Amino acid sequence: MTLDYCVVVGDGANDLDMFKSAGLSIAFNANSILKDVADIVITQKNLGLIIPLLP
Fold it and tell me: For the chain, which ranges sit under pLDDT 70?
């Protein structure tokens, strides 16, 4: 299995490398730097919103 099948969730610039490596990146209440590179952006404080996005 490769990182293409990996889903990551982050909120800050320290997560940039992780976002670039993963198959699906989700910015959760993140700063603007991370929002710019994320595949999906969630702005509500509800982690349950991630569940329907999972492959």
Answer: 1
